[in-house]
């Protein structure tokens, strides 16, 4: 070291814990001949570094430009300090600061290094289903509190053996402070449970599970954030039985295959889609089905796309190892009965999934927070999340301005909640449809965990305007119990504001927003969903909307597109011709009763929903008269559309609102 000694105190926030950041800093400082220390705190990473000024400058440049692949620096501050004398650079123990917080890394798929070790017969972790390092493995699903240290995770009761401890404490090792690190000697173990045979462990358990799949049985698998239900995707009898037991008549199943090469046998995969499939998030990607993929048709009836993902845990990777006679593709669907949250605790899973699964492949590493798989599709080479969960949550969104601490409870269908603090918006993992007690419990558990993890004490509560949503009722109750202001937000104004934020718009100057949706409670008590709004974050005007029609039976009509189509014909004063598919789907008596109901308006709320218009068209052209899952009629209509069609319909506009 030469020149005058300088000192710098550095504070970094972002995703900088559990991603190998401290050993990166240690090795970088050592390589530049610097002294000092680095440690984790509740708010990020703290560094003090001492040496000649040019070495510190080089250190800072590399620190900012070459940080670990899973890290993300959100803020970086450096303050000169009085030089101090240290013999070397060291990593200090973490310390907690009351009230401080930082983002937590999402769960990350197995990395290439761990995958190579997993399949290396000479490695001590060969075929170990819980191999991981600082570049991969569980994060959010096992963390109980911050800082992200082993005692604050569900790995706390697994005592490391000497070999693992040596790696864990070596700053030059890629498993340095990898909190879930373990091996067959000291870590979690798998178990195969079959009510008709003896329980087996480890390699025998894996072999038994693979045999069960080959035999056409339904297997419940404890994964990263909960249980999956799996079977041979090409075995139509097994898939049909899974549908029957899971109460999932038509809705597509997610699929898992061992490699991109296998996936390409059944679907088209672009460069952007392959990149996303192989990314650390490893989401389910909706991919265009090939004509040769008919063997998988029953996994996604009446669909042009199949939802594929690659194995993202070592257990999944071992389970899908290619072998003659073993299935190419597995159904890998959420471990639940339709409309319920994914099962994640052992006792709960055995009780809830026993009527569905023939056998179980489980393990003894507890899951602290259930996390379902993410679903993404690629459009114009860019990813668009359909369900943002494992691999993405709880990674926050960045707001353009500092926000107060707000609890936003979300809507009823495909619920997520959000909590804000400073410039972070922590959007939760996928909760599901808030239509039953089990999902409401999951919603409540998630809010409690996020509040604790990110040290957020809400000062405001935001809810949807719809008074009957469970999320709205929860938020109203929370606001009362904590004496907080309750902010009721119109559903489609929330969509408009979200689009503004998604495009990093800071100004509140008004814009024109086209909001096309299925259901949203309007300020007039009607069901909106096809709106042209003019406004910004603070306020809006409803400039135009689709023609009002009646929704006979209210929300129950959503399951019956035929009924909605006849309502649209009625509202337009068009006849119910006997040759129309929705007319033929009703008996003469039922048609008479429906017409009487529409004439009287009894239990017929008014709607302007674009979603219901799609349902109507789907029924009128004979695609779908009844649905078994939300959006089915529109999805199947879309699958029949000619992608090269350029024709348009003229829509009259009446400026009377």
Structural features, described:
It is a single chain. Helices cover 27% and strands 23% of the residues. It is an alpha+beta fold. An eleven-stranded mixed sheet has the order 7-6-14-8-9-13-10-12-11-15-16, with helices on both faces. The protein is globular, with a radius of gyration of 27 Å. The mean pLDDT is 93.
Summarize the model shown.
With 657 residues, this protein is α+β, with helices and mostly antiparallel strands. Helix content is 27%, strand content 23%.
* Cα separation of the termini: 76 Å
How many domains in all?
5
Shape: globular
Q: How much helix is in the residues?
A: 25-40%
The helix tally amounts to 18
CATH class of the largest domain: Alpha Beta
Q: What is the multimeric organization of the chains shown?
A: single chain
Could you name the ranges where pLDDT drops below 50 across 5 or more consecutive residues?
Answer: none
């Amino acid at each position: 070291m030469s020149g005058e000694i300088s000192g710098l105190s550095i504070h970094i926030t972002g995703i900088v814990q559990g991603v190998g950041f401290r050993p990166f800093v240690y090795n970088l400082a050592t390589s530049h001949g610097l002294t000092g220390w680095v440690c984790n705190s509740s708010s990020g990473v703290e560094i003090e570094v001492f040496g000649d000024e040019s070495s510190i400058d080089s250190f800072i440049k590399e620190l900012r430009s070459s940080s670990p692949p899973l890290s993300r620096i959100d803020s970086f501050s450096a303050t000169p300090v009085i030089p101090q004398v240290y013999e070397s650079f060291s990593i200090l123990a973490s310390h907690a600061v009351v009230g401080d917080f930082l983002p937590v890394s999402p769960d990350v798929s197995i990395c290439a290094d761990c995958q190579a070790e997993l399949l290396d017969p000479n490695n001590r972790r060969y075929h170990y289903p819980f191999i991981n390092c600082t570049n991969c493995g569980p994060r959010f699903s096992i963390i109980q509190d911050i800082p992200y240290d082993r005692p604050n995770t569900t790995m706390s009761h697994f005592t490391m053996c000497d070999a693992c401890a040596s790696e864990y404490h070596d700053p030059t090792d890629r498993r340095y402070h990898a909190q879930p690190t373990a091996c067959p000697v000291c870590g979690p173990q798998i178990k195969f449970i079959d009510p008709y045979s003896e329980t087996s462990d480890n390699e025998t358990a894996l072999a038994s599970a693979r045999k069960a799949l080959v035999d056409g049985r339904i297997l419940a698998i404890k994964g990263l954030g909960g249980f999956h239900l799996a079977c041979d995707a090409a075995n139509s009898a097994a898939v049909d039985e899974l549908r029957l037991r899971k109460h999932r008549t038509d809705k597509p199943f997610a699929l898992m295959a061992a490699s991109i090469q296998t996936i390409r046998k059944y679907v088209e995969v672009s460069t952007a889609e392959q990149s996303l499939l192989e990314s650390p998030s490893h989401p389910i990607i909706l991919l265009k089905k090939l004509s040769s993929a008919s063997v998988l048709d029953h996994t996604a009836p009446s669909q042009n796309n199949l939802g594929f993902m690659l194995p993202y845990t070592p257990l999944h990777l071992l389970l899908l190892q290619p072998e003659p006679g073993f299935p190419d593709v597995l159904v890998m669907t959420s471990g639940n009965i339709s409309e319920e949250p994914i099962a994640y605790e052992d006792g709960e899973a055995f009780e809830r999934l026993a009527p569905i699964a023939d056998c179980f492949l489980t393990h003894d590493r507890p899951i602290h927070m259930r996390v379902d798989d993410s679903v993404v599709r690629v459009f114009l080479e860019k990813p668009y999340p359909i369900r943002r969960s494992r691999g993405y949550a709880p990674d926050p969104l960045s707001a353009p301005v500092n926000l107060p601490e707000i609890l936003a409870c979300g809507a009823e269908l495909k619920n997520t909640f959000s909590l804000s603090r400073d410039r972070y918006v922590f959007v939760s993992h996928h909760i599901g449809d808030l239509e039953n007690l089990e999902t409401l419990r999951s919603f409540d558990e998630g809010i409690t965990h996020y509040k604790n993890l990110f040290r957020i004490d809400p000062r405001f509560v935001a809810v949807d305007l719809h008074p009957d949503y469970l999320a709205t009722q929860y938020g109203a109750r929370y606001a009362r119990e904590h004496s907080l202001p309750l902010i009721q937000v119109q559903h489609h104004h929330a969509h408009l504001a979200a689009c503004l934020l998604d495009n990093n718009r800071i100004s509140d100057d008004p814009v024109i927003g086209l909001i096309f949706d299925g259901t949203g409670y309007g300020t007039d008590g009607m069901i909106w969903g096809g709106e042209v709004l003019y406004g910004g974050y603070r306020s809006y005007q409803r400039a135009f909307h689709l023609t009002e029609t009646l929704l006979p039976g209210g929300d129950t009509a959503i399951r019956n597109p035929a009924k909605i189509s006849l309502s649209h014909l009625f509202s337009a004063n068009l006849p119910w011709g006997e040759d129309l598919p929705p007319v033929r789907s009703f008996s003469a008596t039922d048609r008479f009763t429906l017409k009487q109901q529409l004439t009287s308006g009894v239990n017929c709320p008014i709607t302007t929903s674009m979603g219901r218009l799609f349902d109507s068209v789907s029924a009128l052209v004979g695609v779908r008269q009844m649905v078994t899952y939300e959006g089915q009629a529109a999805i199947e209509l879309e699958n029949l559309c000619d992608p090269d069609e350029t024709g348009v319909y003229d829509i009259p506009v009446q400026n009377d609102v």
